[in-house]
Amino acid sequence: MIAPELLVVVAACWVVGYALKKTPGVPNWSIVYIVTVIAIALVVYLQGWSAQSIIQGILAGAFAVFGHQFVKQGQGAANDTNA
Questions:
Q1: DSSP state for residue 49 in the 8-state scheme
Q2: pLDDT, tens digit, for every residue of 31-68?
Q3: What does the alpha-carbon distance between residue 46 and residue 38 come to, in Å, rounded to a whole number?
Q4: Fewer CB under 10 Å: which end of the chain, C or N?
Q5: DSSP 50
Q6: What's the DSSP call for residue 25?
Q7: CA of 17: how far to CAs of 48, 66, 83, in Å?
Q8: In Å, what is the CA distance from 65 to each residue of 19, 32, 39, 49, 51?
Q9: Is the pLDDT of residue 11 over 70?
Q10: Are 65 and 32 in contact, with CB atoms under 8 Å apart?
Q11: How would residue 2 be classed by pLDDT, with cut points 50, 70 and 90?
């Protein structure tokens, strides 16, 4: 479970992921790894170095990527004329 005070990290990671997606030369497969490393760094900065911070960073990065995919897939389903 992500600590509520870290939802700002999730939002920041979502923005970073969006920016990376629009950046030429950044392969799509690398975005999840970059976002996760940034999330870990932000959480460690905010909470200090600990195993809990690493776990929270991984969860925040994963949730940002999952949230993006959730919205993207939902929009795709809404636009699908075969549904």
A1: S
A2: 999 999 999 999 999 999 999 999 999 999 998 888 87
A3: 12
A4: N
A5: S
A6: T
A7: 24, 11, 29
A8: 13, 7, 11, 23, 21
A9: yes
A10: yes
A11: confident
